[in-house]
């Protein structure tokens, strides 16, 4: 019942704002090939102008022309509050068969409502059948047909054909991943919400009586020393704190964006692995469309809600299970790196561009004074070779708020640290030439970009879902030469090492 309710809830914004959703879909699909969409978008815009200039006036005149005069005693309704109206009879004759062209039509606002033709008082009504006939003729007119088939149809066809591809390509997690996710939810290691799943680090083990006795009798080892191996190793490792925040402890976390048409729970295995290594991971849900684009749920403004909700949960979890080695009343800084797979990887790079253009860091203050914020670290899996989709992230870092400390020379470092992980057997995200690789790297920070390749891995190996393209069963990915668990372990270890690296 809960999944059904959640699914219905995800459709509400689309049903409430269909026009906005349609515009966002156009922007999403056209961003991958702007040139091929330009003509169709221009035709669609010109069709809207024609409809506004011709169709709407035609409908108004039809309604006006369908006024059918009746004698006052056969009046169907009162018109006490009706406004004054005067329409020349010759004009009405063009649109209505009921009006004599030599007469004028008047509507009086007096207490005795009347419609008069000459000096004869009349009442009025709409002839519904006449309106229907004229409306059908208008819809079947050459102008309307031209607007529909020559202006609207090309763009509509492009949008719905791609939606059909997204529908038949939808992928869900395999059965083992579902079972593992369910078990972690029961154990309190995963918190599931409508918009995201939050994967949390392991809880510290309960010390034995002997361990407790030893820890309490040694002055040089505090009672928390037994749990040190379970504490997150990122407390002072990412350097994302300003001098005024030195007393706050930092928790390095990750927001992860799913790939094209992939259910977010298909990344439960990799998210769980990274959380086991000490990094909380929030996997976004992009239901129901499953399209990673800034207009469809992955903009900075959309992430602010997650910063608040997930940030509160991370802080509460760390305090409850004593996963940090400092006084619980002190506030935290929850630094969220952004990552994604495939289409989600390109959305991650777009978010980096959006952050680059901001004058201040994106952060929210939590209930206990802690801060939850986006950090300038990007993790991209199986994306990047289509360099035309990658924004230029070699911006001027001097205009950005300081989140990373200056180096010894006093020069300010690049604002972003970027990790790109590809797979050697990936037939979807692969470099066709060395020039393509150089083009990608030319858009990323020169000194803080890392590009790694997992040998033997493939595109689908970054998640846990069926590699066939949905019902079409058209396989476009390469074959893995390594077990899925090996690719998962390699991708997760590289990511965590990158995030926790000083």
Element order: H for helix, E for strand: HHHEEHEEEHHHEEHEHEHEHEEEHEH
The average pLDDT is 78
Helix and strand composition category: alpha/beta
Please indicate the percent range of residues in DSSP E strands (runs of 2 or more).
15-25%
Radius of gyration: 32 Å
Low-confidence stretches: 70-88, 98-123, 208-247, 402-414, 468-472
Considering DSSP H and I runs of 4 or more, what fraction of the residues is helical? 25-40%
Q: What's the end-to-end separation, in Å? A: 46 Å
DSSP E strands, number: 14
The biggest beta sheet reads: 9 strands, mixed
- Shape, please? globular
Please report the number of helical segments.
13
Topology:
Elements (H helix, E strand, L loop, with lengths): L1 H15 L1 H13 L3 H32 L1 E5 L13 E3 L1 H7 L9 E3 L7 E3 L2 E7 L1 H12 L2 H27 L6 H12 L3 E3 L3 E4 L9 H9 L31 E9 L10 H9 L4 E4 L15 H21 L11 E10 L1 H14 L6 E3 L5 E11 L35 E7 L10 H8 L7 E6 L29 H17 L2
Parallel strand pairs: 8-9, 8-10, 10-12, 12-13, 13-14
Antiparallel strand pairs: 1-5, 2-3, 3-4, 4-5, 6-7, 7-9, 11-12
Question: What is the gist of this entry?
Answer:
With 502 residues, the chain is of the alpha/beta class. Helices cover 39% and strands 16% of the residues.
Provide a descriptive summary of the structure in words:
The strands form two sheets. Strands 6, 7, 8, 9, 10, 11, 12, 13 and 14 form a nine-stranded mixed beta sheet that branches. A five-stranded antiparallel beta sheet has the order 1-5-4-3-2. It is an alpha/beta fold and 502 residues long. The chain is built from 13 helices and 14 strands. About 21% of the residues have low confidence. It starts with a helix and ends with a helix. Strand 8, helix 9 and strand 9 form a beta-alpha-beta unit. Helix 3 crosses helix 4.
């Amino acid at each position: 019942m809960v999944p059904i309710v959640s699914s219905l809830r995800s459709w509400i914004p689309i049903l409430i704002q269909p026009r906005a959703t349609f515009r966002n879909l156009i922007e999403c699909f056209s961003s991958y090939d702007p040139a091929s969409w330009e003509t169709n978008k221009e035709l669609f815009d010109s069709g809207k102008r024609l409809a506004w200039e011709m169709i709407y006036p035609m409908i108004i005149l039809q309604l006006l022309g369908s006024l059918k005069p009746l004698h006052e005693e056969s009046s169907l309704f009162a018109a006490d509050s009706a406004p004054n109206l005067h329409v020349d009879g010759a004009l009405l004759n063009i649109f209505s068969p009921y009006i004599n062209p030599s007469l004028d039509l008047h509507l009086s606002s007096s207490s005795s409502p009347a419609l008069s033709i000459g000096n004869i008082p009349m009442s009025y009504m709409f002839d519904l059948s006449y309106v229907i006939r004229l409306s059908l003729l208008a819809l079947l007119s050459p102008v309307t047909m031209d607007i529909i088939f020559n202006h609207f149809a090309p763009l509509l066809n492009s949008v719905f054909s791609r939606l059909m591809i997204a529908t038949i390509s939808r992928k869900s997690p395999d059965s083992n991943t579902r079972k593992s996710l369910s078990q972690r939810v029961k154990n309190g290691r995963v918190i599931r919400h409508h918009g995201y799943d939050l994967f949390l680090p392991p809880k510290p083990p309960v010390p034995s009586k002997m361990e407790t006795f030893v820890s309490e009798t040694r002055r040089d080892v505090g009672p928390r020393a037994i749990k040190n191996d379970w504490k997150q190793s990122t407390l002072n490792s990412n350097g994302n704190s300003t001098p005024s925040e030195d007393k706050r402890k930092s928790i390095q976390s990750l927001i992860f964006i799913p790939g094209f048409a992939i259910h977010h729970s298909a990344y439960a295995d990799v998210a769980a692995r990274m959380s086991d290594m000490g990094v909380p991971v929030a996997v976004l849900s992009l239901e129901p469309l499953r399209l990673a684009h800034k207009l469809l749920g992955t903009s900075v403004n959309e992430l602010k809600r997650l910063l608040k909700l997930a940030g509160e949960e991370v802080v509460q979890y760390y305090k409850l299970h004593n996963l940090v080695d400092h006084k619980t009343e002190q506030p935290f800084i929850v630094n969220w790196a952004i990552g994604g797979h495939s289409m989600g990887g390109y959305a991650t790079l777009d978010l980096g561009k959006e952050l680059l253009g901001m004058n201040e860091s994106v952060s929210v203050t939590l209930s206990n004074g802690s801060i939850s914020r986006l950090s300038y670290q990007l993790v991209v899996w199986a994306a990047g070779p289509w360099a035309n989709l990658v924004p230029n992230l070699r911006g001027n870092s001097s205009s950005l708020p300081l989140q990373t400390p200056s180096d010894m020379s006093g020069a300010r470092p690049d604002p972003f640290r970027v990790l790109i992980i590809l797979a050697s057997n990936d037939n979807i995200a692969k470099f066709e030439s060395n020039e393509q690789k150089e083009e990608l790297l030319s858009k990323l920070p020169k000194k803080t970009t890392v590009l790694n390749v997992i040998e033997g891995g493939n595109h689908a190996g970054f998640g846990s879902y069926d590699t066939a393209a949905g019902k079409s069963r058209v396989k476009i990915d390469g074959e893995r030469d390594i077990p899925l668990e090996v690719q998962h372990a390699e991708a997760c270890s590289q990511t965590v090492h990158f995030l926790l690296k000083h």
